[in-house]
Specification:
With 221 residues, this protein is mainly alpha-helical. It is built from nine helices and no strands. It starts with a helix and ends in a 19-residue tail after the last helix.
Length: 221
């Protein structure tokens, strides 16, 4: 794929992810309404440790709404050319992902739709995000920016599963696929495909414009 095609694909990815983020964010507002029960919540109740699950849902949604766009913005050349901002926003993003997003997601996974296979899929995605984020921070501290790029790609790729999985679920619902099968396939395909895509992109010279190209100057690290 030529460089201009890669750049076009990267901008298309950013546009789709931004639109998906807006749609998910708007749909998630109902989780924070104090005097109503969202349809998703009503469908899942009763669950074990209900208070913990409800709290995890709110924390997970809130942290995802904040960290996903930050991950996208942190990979743009505009922010890469501003290392002080990049470093500060990166620290906030990393802290939220490790301390809030991943733990709350693990709590929610125990009551995931689709059964044990979906729970395992969520665990796998959470593990990739956690390991990649911690490794990405460590590689940035070592000034190994190629490794940092690779790890952060995996974080962003797995977070994009929230958008791609919902898109697949809508398609499967329209096709009349059995719900348990739909939830399993709609999770596992994006999780595996995102991991493979991140590895493929990390090895390309004609790298997308959103993917951590300019290194942070040593004097500002």
């Amino acid at each position: 794929m030529t460089n201009w095609r890669v750049q076009l694909a990267s901008r298309g990815f950013l546009l789709v992810m931004a639109l998906g983020w807006v749609a998910i964010g708007l749909a998630s507002l109902e989780y924070f309404e104090p005097d109503s029960v969202a349809p998703f919540v009503a469908e899942r109740l009763p669950v074990r440790f209900e208070s913990l699950w409800l709290g995890a849902l709110q924390w997970h949604v809130a942290s995802a709404i904040v960290t996903f766009p930050l991950c996208l913005v942190l990979g743009t050349p505009w922010l890469q050319r501003r290392p002080v901002w990049h470093r500060s926003l990166g620290r906030v993003t990393g802290a939220l992902v490790v301390a809030v997003l991943v733990p709350s997601g693990i709590v929610l996974s125990f009551e995931a739709k689709g059964g044990a296979l979906v729970t395992v899929g969520f665990f796998l995605s959470a593990a990739v995000v956690l390991v990649a984020m911690v490794s990405g921070v460590a590689s940035a501290r070592r000034r190994d920016f190629l490794a940092h790029k690779r790890h952060m790609l995996h974080v962003t790729a797995q977070m994009s599963v929230a958008v791609t999985s919902r898109g697949l679920l809508r398609g499967f619902d329209m096709a009349g696929l059995e719900p348990e099968v739909a939830y399993t396939v709609a999770l596992w395909i994006p999780v595996v495909a995102s991991a493979l895509a991140a590895e493929w992109l990390a090895g390309r010279r004609a790298f997308p414009s959103f993917a951590f190209t300019p290194p942070v100057p040593r004097s500002l690290s």
